[in-house]
# Entry
Amino acid sequence: MSRPHLLLPFAMLLPSFALVIWIMGYPVADLMRMSVHAVNRFGQAGNFVGALNFSKLFADPLFWASFRRTVIWTVCVTSGTIMISIPVALILSQDFAGRSLARLIVLLPWAVSATMTGIVWRWTLNGQFGMLNALLLKFGLTDQPIEFLATGQVAFPVAILIGILAAVPLTVIIFLGAFSSLPGDVFDAARIDGAGPLNTFRYMTLPLIRPFVNIAIVLNVIYAFNSFAIIWILTQGGPANSTDILVTYLYKVAFQYGKMAEASAMSLMMFAFLLVFCILYARFAMRERAL
# Structure
């Protein structure tokens, strides 16, 4: 094949690649500039301060508490979503009466925005007139209303459960695509040879859907790490910053405390963290596939 033909695919991708670089590159470059300058609350950069903004972040105990909470939030939401979505998608991939309706019911919450999801759950969990408290009182499971969002020890696990429920529909779609692509004749042969459902799932289904699992993990990590609406609507990071994750604490630093330079440094660190994670995970997945 001649050299011009070899370069043609790259030339056709160049406009899209340039657009992506512009859309992503300019904000990142602007964050880098603001993170090493003194910035007023209106976003105007002043004197060069070097790593001072990063030093202030590293000395902030609320930043480290939010970072630790973000790791817990991301790991719990991602793992919980994967563990729920795989069996749900496996059931929905079977042929049974009412399958289309069942799929619609499971996937319908995906059409609802995260903001509306947070609002509905905040009403449901209200300590005085919430629907969940009404049900608990009606069936005698408690003798007084429970303040689900009054303390971080209760509110944060509740937010994790809601985050999992919000992420399940999209992940189920991914695994439905995975199960629909599996070769049926291989499973028929395994069934004839006497392989049980558990062994078939463990030794055949899971290895075959591993690329889809990798995609689901990456997408859910990015979603959970940047998930703002649910926690903000439920608790606004309170009480006393006990449910803040990095993205909600970033909002407070930037728009409530007016520390735009420190917020820029935090945004840059969050971007770098996700970028490093995606690169390392992609390399791990490619190496595992090569083996």
User: Anything to note?
Assistant: The mean pLDDT is 86.
